Amino acid sequence: MKKYLLIALLLTLSACTSKTEFGDCVGLFDDKKPDLTYKISGWNALMGVIGTSIMFVPTIFVLKDETFCPIGKK
């Protein structure tokens, strides 16, 4: 059973978007670059919710590192 939980955890974390063509995604408390427009990543939020049903680790990881992704220049 532990093996399946570990596999599910790794798949959830690997499915998150961490980079776009405009740069790296940032977390809730990270500084955003002033010349870029950011948007909450729906895919990362969905993976965080799915991760909550497995463990809290994916949700914490997504909130800390990959909540907002750059979508364009201002």
Word description of this protein:
By secondary structure, the protein is of the alpha+beta class. It has one domain (2-73). Helices cover 47% and strands 20% of the residues. It has helices at residues 2-14, 42-54, 57-65, and strands at residues 19-20, 23-24, 36-40, 68-73. A hairpin with a 2-residue loop joins strand 1 and strand 2.
Going by helix content, strand content and strand pairing, the class is alpha+beta
Spatial gap, N to C terminus: 48 Å
**Largest sheet entry:** 2 strands, antiparallel
Strand percentage lies at 15-25%
Overall number of strands:
4
Strand order of the largest sheet: 1-2
User: What level of helicity do the residues show?
Assistant: 40-55%
Topology:
Layout (H helix, E strand, L loop, with lengths): L1 H13 L4 E2 L2 E2 L11 E5 L1 H13 L2 H9 L2 E6 L1
Antiparallel strand pairs: 1-2, 3-4
Helix pairs in contact: 1-2, 2-3
Provide the descriptors you would attach to this structure in a database record.
alpha+beta; single chain; two-stranded antiparallel sheet; 74 residues
Write a short abstract of this structure.
With 74 residues, the protein is of the alpha+beta class. Helix content is 47%, strand content 20%.
